Amino acid sequence: MSKLRVTIIDYGLGNLLSLQRAFEFIGVNAIITREHKLILGSTHVILPGVGAFPAAMDSIIKFKLKESLLKVANSGIPLLGICLGMQLLLTESEEFKNTKGLNLIPGKVKQIHDSKNKSKKIKIPHIGWNNLLPSNGNNSLKLNLLEKTSKEDSYYFVHSFTSIPDEKEHRIYETIYEDINLSAIIKKKNILGFQFHPEKSGKPGLQLLRNFLQI
User: Fold this and answer.
1) Exposed (0-12), middle (13-18) or buried (19+): which is 44, by Cβ within 10 Å?
2) C-alpha separations of 116 from 4, 112, 170 in Å
């Protein structure tokens, strides 16, 4: 992994140091930056995020990072969005107001709806540990992405909104909260999103970061 150049995008929102330490733990030096040249010189790019979608997009535009991210996507460099970062990959979000996203994976971000049982109210945000279940998508991709993990492994989620890609094949893993199926991992070509926090998910989460670096 010595030839890897991993960049964590700094736009003012996200668990930057936690992610950096997670990569250090698996033997990879990840830099935190918003410099255009460093981002485009990366082998892998991470878009983190904690907070609200509109504020995140405002910051991305403020720091002129949208152009960098679009160039990364178009160049074929693997790009991973985590939590809010995953949601920013989509076309738009309804959080607080309709806000345009990066549109790297066509789809919308919507609030987690109530249970299918109309008399039952579920707790929002969805916080806690959940398993990953295969959804629609490429079977070989699923196998490679979760290599050296177990179907019993769980990952740490904390979110009130969910990503809904327009195309089913872009939703490759999901998780079940109460009786609702939510997107857990989405992917289109070199663009990948984790709704959960791999850096907070123990050994399985670290393994997923290792697997991402093999893409």
Assistant:
1) buried
2) 45, 12, 24
Annotation marks residue 178 as catalytic? no
State pLDDT tens for residues 33-66.
999 999 999 999 999 988 999 999 999 999 999 9
Task: Please compute the mean of the pLDDT values over residues 123-135 and round it to a whole number.
Answer: 92
Task: Provide the residue ranges of all domains of the chain, joining segments of one domain with +.
Answer: 6-212
Give me the pLDDT at residue 14, please: 78
Six token digits for residue 167: 């195309």
Is there a catalytic annotation at residue 199? yes
Digit-coded pLDDT (tens) for 15-27: 899 999 999 999 9
36 classed as catalytic:
no
Q: Which helix (H) or strand (E) holds 13?
A: none
Looking at 126, 159, 174, 199, which residue is catalytic?
199
- Superfamily (CATH) of domain 6-212: Class I glutamine amidotransferase (GATase) domain (3.40.50.880)
Structure tokens at 69: 């991210």
CB 200 within 8 A of CB 92: no
Q: Choose, from 83, 126, 159, 170, the residue flagged as catalytic.
A: 83
Give the integer Cα–Cα distance in Å for 113 and 122. 8
Q: Choose the catalytic residue: 44, 126, 159, 197.
A: 197
